[in-house]
Amino acid sequence: MSEFDDAARNGLSPRELEAVLREVGAARYHNKHPFHHQMTSGALTKGQMQAWALNRYSYQSVIPRKDAAILMRSEDPEFRAHWRKRIEDHDGDDGWNGGIARWLKLATGLGLDADMVKSERKVLPATRFAVGAYLSYCSNKTMLEAVASSLTELFSPVIITERVPAMLAKYDYITKDILAYFDKRPALASRDSDFALAYVMEHANTPEKQQAVINALVFKCDVLWAMLDALSHAYGQKGNIPPGAFVPEVS
Q1: Longest dimension (CA), the chain
Q2: Taking the CB of residue 202, how many other CB atoms lie within 10 A of it?
Q3: What is the rounded CA–CA span in Å between residue 169 and residue 180?
Q4: Is the distance from CB of 242 to CB of 124 less than 8 angstroms?
Q5: pLDDT tens column, 174-189
Q6: Where is 1: in which H helix or E strand?
Q7: Which residue from 33, 116, 205, 249 could staple onto 228, CB 3.0 to 4.6 Å apart?
Q8: C-alpha 104: how far from its chain's center?
Q9: The CATH number fitting domain 14-235, selected from 2.60.40.10, 3.30.200.20, 3.20.20.140, 1.20.910.10
Q10: What are the residue ranges spanned by the domains of the chain?
Q11: What is the pLDDT of residues 44-93, one digit of tens each?
């Protein structure tokens, strides 16, 4: 249950539906999370930054797979031509010169071993469950819901403009080169969210479908929030790191 459960009860115009979707992001996007605020205030230790990069890699690595699941279900060549750009952005043309490789560069730039990061064997159990839930959602829900779940990209440029300047200013071991992943993301996220939003506006043409896409965006915000909850629990002041998960070196 969420505060948006009945938002489309009486039906919404396309403009009203977009407004509700943006309200979801304003209320629930993970730039509101305390862990993000700690990051941008300069309060995280290097070990906490490493844990964030490692666990986020697990999410980054599943994005092309969830996009392939969506792509597989479309019978529209025009849709497929546009949506496959997302996979190309993350995998590059050889698997290791796209967004995933740039995220790996971020993780190794923070001092993590590349093979360990790629194996994902030390990510938090909660991260594994959250990422798996997202992939399952995009594979098993309707195509409209799967597309709508990607609309967190509407808000991605906001969190990047908060995160990158703060990281460069407040962590002396972070350089612009390490953060190369973020150079292209605002423009790509805007391109992709514009396309997804137009698709949702066209196809969410009943109150039931409109509520489904609102719920899809709530779900995706919950996935991203849960990942930061897990990091806060495991690597916060009390330290509740599960067996087998990454343990930062004591400096």
Answers
A1: 57
A2: 10
A3: 16
A4: yes
A5: 999 999 999 999 999 9
A6: none
A7: 33
A8: 15
A9: 1.20.910.10
A10: 14-235
A11: 999 999 999 999 999 999 999 999 999 999 999 999 999 999 999 999 98
Q: How far is CA 111 from CA 41, 49, 51, 84, 122, in A?
A: 21, 10, 11, 32, 15
As a whole number of angstroms, the distance between CA 199 and CA 221 comes to: 19
What is the CB neighbour count within 10 angstroms for residue 247? 13
* pTM > 0.90: yes
Q: How far is CA 173 from CA 70, 106, 111, 168, 212, in A?
A: 38, 11, 10, 9, 43
Round to the nearest angstrom and report the end-to-end CA distance of the chain. 43
Tokens of 249: 């070196």
DSSP code at position 29: S
The closest alpha carbon to 159, from 20, 4, 52, 67, belongs to 52
Ramachandran category for residue 175: left, alpha or beta (phi over 0 → left; psi -120 to 50 → alpha): beta
Burial class (CB in 10 A: 0-12, 13-18, 19+), 116: middle
By CB neighbour count within 10 A (0-12 exposed, 13-18 middle, 19+ buried), where does 115 fall? exposed
Axis crossing angle, helix 181-203 with helix 99-109, rounded to the nearest 10? 140
Handedness of CA 9, 14, 19, 21 (dihedral sign): positive
Contact, 175 vs 183, CB < 8 A?
A: no
Nearest CA among 106, 93, 85 for reference residue 153? 85
Structure confidence by residue, pLDDT tens digits, 111-133:
999 999 999 999 999 999 999 99
